[in-house]
């Protein structure tokens, strides 16, 4: 499952169901973790693309 879809599902669940404070905190922590994972994945893609672009530039 993609990070964005999982985050959307958790946000809808948080709004739809009555959660106590501890449950809301757990849902928000899960959302934060997924968001960090998404950012890390995107950053790694940019780093790898940069390496490939530099390699291609150096070989020309």
Structural features:
mainly alpha; 2 helices; 60 residues; 88% helix
Topology summary:
Layout: H1 3-16, H2 21-59
Helix pairs in contact: 1-2
Describe the structure.
By secondary structure, the protein is an all-alpha fold. The protein has one domain. The protein contains two helices and no strands. α1 runs antiparallel to α2.
Biggest β-sheet strands, sense, barrel: none
Strand and helix order: HH
Domain module tally: 1
Count every beta strand, where a strand is a DSSP E run of 2 or more residues.
Answer: 0
Radius of gyration: 18 Å
- Beta-strand level of the residues, as a percent range? under 5%
Give a summary of the structure in a few sentences.
This protein is mainly alpha-helical and 60 residues long. The protein has two helices and no strands. The protein is rod-shaped.
